[in-house]
Amino acid sequence: MSEIDDFVAAPTAEAFDSLTKDQLIQLAERYEIPLNSYDKRRKDVLKTLVREELVELSLLPPIKFDGLVASDLTFDQQKELLQLQIDKGKQQLAEQQVLAERCKLDREIQLGKLEIERECLALERQRLSLVETGNMGSSDSGSSPSVDITKNIRLLPKFDESDVDTFFNLFERVADLYRWPDAARCLMLQCTLSGRAAQAYSALGLPESRTYSCVKKAVLRAYELVPEAYRQKFRGMRKPPNQSYVEFADELSLQFKRWCSSAKVESIEDLSNLVLVEQFKTCLPEDVAVYISEHQVATVSEAAVLADDYALVCIRASSSHWSFIQGPSSSTV
């Protein structure tokens, strides 16, 4: 360590040349010279890099060249030094590209936040205008406070394309709890939608995009959540091994309610027809049941008529096919 202290006190080329590999590393740390693991492998490379930095700091005199080759560097050493400089340049360029991408992403995030804030301000101005013109009563203005999107967006559930109903259920609970107005619900909904839901929202006209019921209907239609889809979900449910029986019963009840709601079951008679048609289809061959499902009948009598028509068509088709195979009968010969 005394050699390094002596060199720092009086830096000379002779004192520098007498330093060992470990002392060169310690000297680089003393002057905060950046080195990587590759730089520390060979003493001649390490010595060259440290010397260059000390020359730039005016602590050592510049290297004097004799023609094309330095007096203390071989051609191979200079070639390796040049390669090191190229590698460092590539590394610096890659770091600059990563930094540029990060800055670009930060700008996009900031622009998104500013856009949301502008939408929020426009919504607030619209609400205040309605209050001033008397189109919104005092009770409405008191029960529908202004919505700060930047603060409330963290309350929104994550949109899941595989379970759109659960998302809307959770979203409406939050919206009802904070008494968000219809326009605010659409704006908050826009911040969470993705995939086919976002495409369905963007396809709406301006009036529909500000009406929550229209937006919800368009999103559900995009995922084809029709009565048959709900029926299949309900009929195909199985209890996962890690789920309790209470949780499974709740999920089963929820899927049944969604099926009834999509089928517009509003009375005991509607529910009876739904159950009777379902039971009727379970007693039929699969192809007949599928045919009835495609026609979306409302009563079991309608389903029975369709089943008879389907069976009759199948019999005629089978008879025609058999006649074609047999060819002309022998009596006509």
Task: Draw up the topology in text.
Layout: H1 2-9, H2 13-17, H3 21-30, H4 43-56, E1 65-66, E2 69-70, H5 75-133, H6 138-143, H7 149-152, H8 164-177, H9 182-190, H10 196-202, H11 206-209, H12 212-222, H13 227-235, H14 245-262, H15 268-282, H16 286-295, H17 300-326
Helix pairs in contact: 3-4, 10-12, 13-14, 16-17
Which features would summarize this protein structure in a list?
mainly alpha; 2 strands; two-stranded antiparallel sheet; SCAN_dom; 333 residues
3D structure, described in words:
The chain has 333 residues and is an all-alpha fold. Among the domains are: 2-73, no CATH class; 153-224; 265-328, no CATH class. It contains 17 helices and 2 strands. The chain has helices spanning 2-9, 13-17, 21-30, 43-56, 75-133, 138-143, 149-152, 164-177, 182-190, 196-202, 206-209, 212-222, 227-235, 245-262, 268-282, 286-295, 300-326; strands spanning 65-66, 69-70. Strands 1-2 form a two-stranded antiparallel ribbon. A hairpin with a 2-residue loop joins β1 (65-66) and β2 (69-70). The longest helix has 59 residues, at 75-133.
* β-strand amount: under 5%
Using DSSP, what is the number of strands? Answer: 2
Mean pLDDT over the full residue set:
77
Structural class, from helix and strand content?
mainly alpha
